[in-house]
Amino acid sequence: MNQVSIVIFMFLAGSLIALQGSVNSALGKFLEHPLHAAIVSFSLGLVALLITSFCLKSGLPSPAKIFSAPKVILIGGLLGAVFVSSVIFCVPKIGVANVVMAALCGQIVLSLLLDHFGAFGVTARPVDFKRLVGGVLVVVGVILVSLPRK
User: Fold this and answer.
1) What radius of gyration, in Å, describes the C-alpha atoms of the chain?
2) What 8-state DSSP symbol labels residue 115?
C-alpha cells in the first residue's frame, strides 16, 4: 500500500472511533455501568480477534514468547481499556464530538513527541515547523468544537 492509501484507510478506521464511542456509550446506559460496557466490548473484540487469527491460520503466540517480551510493551491492552472506559464514561457527559476531538488532540500531541524521539523503535521523525503548526491547529480545533453553544 502506498502512503495515500494508508492515510485513507486510517481515516476510515479512525472514523470507527466515533461510532465505537456512540455504541459503547449506549451499551453503558443499557447495562447501567460504563465498565460493564467496556468488559462486553473487549470480550467481543477478543472473540473476533481469536476467530480472525484462526481463520488466517496465524495461530497464537506461545506464553513463553509473551512473558519474555519487555513488560513496557505489554501495556497496550491496559491503555485500550482506559481509553474505551473513558470514552464510555465521557460521551454521555460532553458528547461524541467533544470526546473524539479531545482524544484526537491528545493522540496528536503525544504522537508528535513519540515520533520526534523515535520511541519504542519507531523511525524518528523530528517535529518541524509544519508538524508543529498542524498540531497547534488540532488543538485550536478542539477548543472551537468544545466551546459552549450560546
Assistant:
1) 18
2) H
Q: Which amino acid is at 31?
A: L
CA-based angle 102:103:106, to the nearest 5? 90
Q: Dump pLDDT digits (tens) for 26-74.
A: 999 999 999 999 999 999 999 999 999 999 999 999 999 999 999 999 9
All 3 cell numbers of residue 81? 481499556
Q: How far apart are alpha carbons 62 and 150 in whole angstroms? A: 57
Q: What 3-state DSSP class applies to 68?
A: coil
89-128 burial code (b ≥16 CB/10 A, e <16) = bbbeeebbebbbbbbbbeebeeebeebeeeeeeeeeeeee
pLDDT tens digits, one per residue of 63-106: 999 999 999 999 999 999 999 999 999 999 999 988 988 998 89
